[in-house]
Specification:
With 70 residues, this protein is mainly α. It has 2 helices and no strands.
């Protein structure tokens, strides 16, 4: 059996991510960059780490709501 992810699974994951994106961004609490200001690579990595954690928390919250109702 192959370990490759099917295109259907990839599409489902991307759809789930996009549906959770507004909640994820709220949980991450990241502000927008000031105009004409660039982030350093370290700042971008820190923001990505925050988004990853917020996405995991958003998924966990959704699963808990689905299982227990609140």
């Amino acid at each position: 059996m192959s370990d490759a992810v099917t295109p259907d699974v990839k599409q489902a994951r991307m759809t789930e991510f996009m549906k959770l994106l507004p909640l994820t961004l709220e949980l991450a609490g990241l502000g927008k960059a000031a105009p004409n200001t660039l982030y350093t690579p370290d700042q971008m990595e820190a923001r990505v780490m925050n988004l990853r954690m917020a996405y995991k928390l958003a998924r966990t919250l959704l699963k808990e709501i689905g299982e227990s109702g609140a």
